[in-house]
Amino acid sequence: MRAAASGDVVLSPGVTAHVVRRMRQDCRADRTRVAVERIVALTGREREVLAMLGAGLTNAEIARRIGVETGTVKVHVGRILAKLGTANRVQAAIIAYEAGLADGTSGVRRA
């Protein structure tokens, strides 16, 4: 009562939990939207490589999966980092995860 009398907003625990849940959902949706917007600039092959990078594959593993040389994968990764404006593979992997290209459990998803 004192808090309300002094002009503070008082919420019940149930309402507070609902507000917090909704804010988390909104933040997650915003991160997904931003990540999807960032990967639009990538070619299909670059998105494919980003998905595998997001799933934690090494350059050699990616090269074997797509049937190219490791050096070619390095070129793709470099272009991906440049287009996404990221400094390293970890940042790119986070974008892949947030965009839904890699799910962290089963690995690569179809884009």
Describe the structure.
There is one protein chain. The chain is rod-shaped. It has a single domain (13-99), classed as Arc Repressor Mutant, subunit A (Orthogonal Bundle). It has helices spanning 2-5, 13-39, 44-54, 59-66, 70-84, 89-99. The termini are far apart. Helix 2 (13-39) packs across helix 6 (89-99), helix 3 (44-54) crosses helix 5 (70-84) and helix 3 (44-54) packs across helix 6. It is 68% helix and 0% strand. With 111 residues, the protein is an all-alpha fold. The model has no long low-confidence stretch (mean pLDDT 82).
Question: Approximately how much helix is present in the residues?
Answer: 55-70%
Q: Give the C-alpha Rg.
A: 20 Å
Low-confidence region ranges: none
CATH architecture: Orthogonal Bundle
Q: What's the CATH superfamily, by name?
A: Winged helix-like DNA-binding domain superfamily/Winged helix DNA-binding domain
Number of strands: 0
Under CATH at level 1, the class stands as Mainly Alpha
* SSE ordering: HHHHHH
Mean pLDDT level = 82
Percent range for β-strand residues: under 5%
**End-to-end separation:** 53 Å
Per the CATH scheme, the topology name is: Arc Repressor Mutant, subunit A
Number of domains: 1
Number of helices: 6
GO molecular function, one term: DNA binding
Keywords: DNA-binding, Transcription, Transcription regulation
Protein name: HTH luxR-type domain-containing protein
Organism: Streptomyces tubercidicus
